[in-house]
Amino acid sequence: MTEFPPALAEVAHHLREAQEIAVLTGAGISAESGVPTFRDAQTGIWAKYDPMQLATPEAFAADPKRVWEWYAWRRGLVAEAKPNPGHLALANLEGEVPALTLITQNVDRLHHRAGSKNVVELHGNLEEDRCSHENCVVRADPSDNRTPPHCPRCEALLRPNVVWFGEALSPAALERSFNAAGNCDLFLCIGTSSLVYPAADLPMEALNRGATVVEINADPTPLSPHATYCLQGKAGTLLPAISALAFPAITTNGSPA
Questions:
Q1: What spatial distance separates the first Cα and last Cα of the chain, rounded to whole Å?
Q2: Given a cut of 50, is residue 256 above it in pLDDT?
Q3: Which positions are catalytic?
Q4: Residues near 172 by beta carbon (within 8 Å), at least 6 away in sequence
Q5: pTM
Q6: Which residues are CB-neighbours of 97 under 8 A, at least 6 positions away?
Q7: What 3 state SS string does the chain have?
Q8: Confidence at 42, pLDDT banded by 50, 70, 90
Q9: What is the mean pLDDT of residues 3-26?
Q10: With contact defined as beta carbons under 8 Å apart, do 116 and 94 qualify?
Q11: Residue 36's pLDDT band (boundaries 50, 70, 90)?
Q12: Going from the N-terminus, what domains does the chain have, and what CATH number goes with each?
């Protein structure tokens, strides 16, 4: 029988009473679906490469074929993963509460596949490509067998639509995220190390505005001493339990939308 933290009922009460909820998710929630974290993904033929030497504009400029093939391999890993009960619980919560903004550092789209609608993707989206010259999302010509394929509009190289090291986050995504953190009365920080900025500033923004901040993570983080509640464990276990306490009719066992 699963033993839940004593604070679970209190967190469920805050969830039930909240008018505006902001959620930040990181690699931890996707790891429960079998998606390797950034460094754990370096296996097989890619084990000799430092991911920070592949996920940069400089790496792409130096060897676009290698970078494209690495991302193609990562896309294959993500394609095999399925949303877990943590993803499904968040998707179901969106239909139960007055307002919920889900901010994710993940690029795997598992939240979308679970059925979440109001999602801010801080670091982009692994499923999409964008033109390396025009910086706009485009769809590759299926008949283009080059590696990487070229933009069908201007013939520049296509690249994954993700944020690389050394690149700025989308100003629009940042604005939405900080607005959600600043206006919420409950902030859930799930499966993130709280080490990557500016995302790590979001729960502190919520705290400074008087919100209740709940951290759900397998291990303590720099946020832990500041959070209102720290629940140590798996999101796929704790989120369904909290949701069921707050909204007894909710189900997180259905098929992803």
A1: 29
A2: no
A3: 123
A4: none
A5: 0.91
A6: 15, 18, 19, 21
A7: CCCCCCCHHHHHHHHHHCCCEEEEECHHHHHCCCCCCCCCCCCHHHCCCCHHHCCCHHHHHHCHHHHHHHHHHHHHHHHCCCCCHHHHHHHHHHCCCCCEEEEECCCCCHHHHHCCCCEEECCEEEEEEEECCCCCEECCCCCCCCCCCECCCCCCEEEEEECCCCCCCCHHHHHHHHHHHHHCCEEEEECCCCCCCCCCHHHHHHHHCCCEEEEEECCCCCCCCCCCEEEECCHHHHHHHHHHHHCCCCCCCCCCC
A8: very low
A9: 92
A10: yes
A11: confident
A12: 1-34+83-123+169-257 (3.40.50.1220)
Q: Residues 64, 66, 70, 75: what is their CA dihedral angle, to the nearest 10 degrees?
A: 50
Q: Work out the pLDDT band at 3, boundaries 50, 70, 90.
A: low
Question: Does residue 71 contact residue 149 with C-beta atoms inside 8 Å?
Answer: no
Tokens of 71: 């991302």
- Token pair 């097989």 is at which residue? 44
Higher pLDDT, 9 or 250: 9
Report residue 226 as tokens: 């500041």
Are 211 and 187 in contact by the 8 Å Cβ rule? The answer is yes
Q: Is 85:237 a contact under the CB 8 Å cutoff? A: yes
β-strands 100-104, 229-232 pairing: unpaired
